[in-house]
Amino acid sequence: MKVELTIVIAVLESYEAVYRQCQYWANMPVPLDVEIIIMDDGSPKPLSAIVETFASACNVRVIGTGDTRPWSQPCARNAGAKCAKADYILFTDIDHIISVEALVTARMFSGDMMKFPREFAVIDEKGNLTQDLCTLKKYGLRRKIKTGPHFNTFVIKKELFEALNGYDESYCGKYGGDDTDFADRYSKLAKAGKATRSSLGPRMFVFPDPRKDVKQIFHGLRRKK
Q1: Which CATH number fits domain 5-206: 2.40.50.100, 3.90.420.10, 3.40.50.1820, 3.90.550.10?
Q2: Which end of the chain is less enclosed by CB atoms within 10 A, N or C?
Q3: pLDDT per residue over 58-100, tens digit each?
């Protein structure tokens, strides 16, 4: 079976979030011609034991980065892209929730890059998505239900990602700047007429600010100690 879309998610710890995401993907369900690669960026306890429980329900696997630097998302995303079997890659973070509409659109996408408007939502303990306002507030919502696109979540043609040399791994070791740098380089390519400007797809979802981590399902520091 030809893989139509590869989803790449770099994760450090966040065991509960990974479990809920796997439940959600199994409930969706994600088509088997869509592969999900979770790049384990050095979790003390391997994520594979969680993911293997759901492997029969969706095409998901774990690959370790083997990188010991305190922040190595650029390395993880590049490694995930090299393992991707599809011509298009959806990069996102573990706190984002892929909507059915976004998945269908990304799977059929034939342009250069697509970003997504976002709304706040959570995946509950049973793997169900909810936008119930009371629930969102319990997870730390302090703003309006809608928010803008983010540089960390987009679909891109794999050969274009490779032409840009992927993420700049000089950002490894320190948090921040890697997503913005990649977006800036893509923008320059588009201005030079070598790629189209990123289009806007259907809505994606995101947990309320995981840096506050009210429910303690995300890795608080987002980096290795």
Answers
A1: 3.90.550.10
A2: C
A3: 999 999 998 888 889 999 999 999 999 999 999 999 999 999 9
